[in-house]
Amino acid sequence: MSKKKRTTTLVIAGLVCIVLVIGIILTNKGGPKAETVQEAMKDAVVHNENKINFFGFEVNPSLVSGYVVTGVVLLFALILRIFFIPKFKRIPGKFQMLIEAWVGFFDNLAKTNSPHLNSFLGAYIFTAGSYICLGTLFELFGIQAVTTAGHSVALPAPHADINGAIQMGVLSYFIILTGGIAANKLKGVGLTLKEFSLPISMSFRLFGALLSGMLVTELVYYYMTLSFVLPVIVGVLFTLLHALIQTYVLTMLTSVFYGEVSEVHEKKPKEKKKKAEAVAEA
Asked: The whole model's pTM is what?
């Protein structure tokens, strides 16, 4: 890019920023907000106030987010399977390399941590990891919805609701249990139930990480003095970090514990039997 074009681009970007700032100042009437910052942050945790009418039911905004993300993921998978995968070549292009790298990451994670039984594990952690990552990034779009009280709210990440986080933790624990049963039958059940606190730790780790970022962003957006430029940096930074870190943490924990319970434990011969075999050989 030439120096002239670079200067022109910077000038246009600066003018756009100035227009946006003036627009924000002019449209901010300074009147009372729909709720105080304490109420906004409290509702971000317990979801008692901001409800959305969903086909006649009052539901938390995160539930609507979950349905939207699930629909988008399924639609993208359908389009990918019909229009793109049949055209994949032996020498991949950029898009094919991106898809193969994303799938290969979870497949290698499953094979590394569970070498004994990993075909279904790879498919699960790929699905769970994709859902967590895309679900966390979903809040960056700031899609608005109208609550039953009449004011608008931005749809949060699906796992910003404790119910969504518990669902993911319990489902991952159930997958670990099935791996133990498939490899070691009833003994696998005992090996899995020994880690009884695992679904709680996975659920609250996921919920706590997403909630902390959402509360910080909510606090920054609420105050006029902090609502210029800073929310973009804070919101994007927290969201991207949480999307990548929580995807890796949950899939890593699931694959590690799945590998432990699915490892085949052979019965050790009893001491008396060993002595009898030794005497017979002598």
From this structure: 0.78
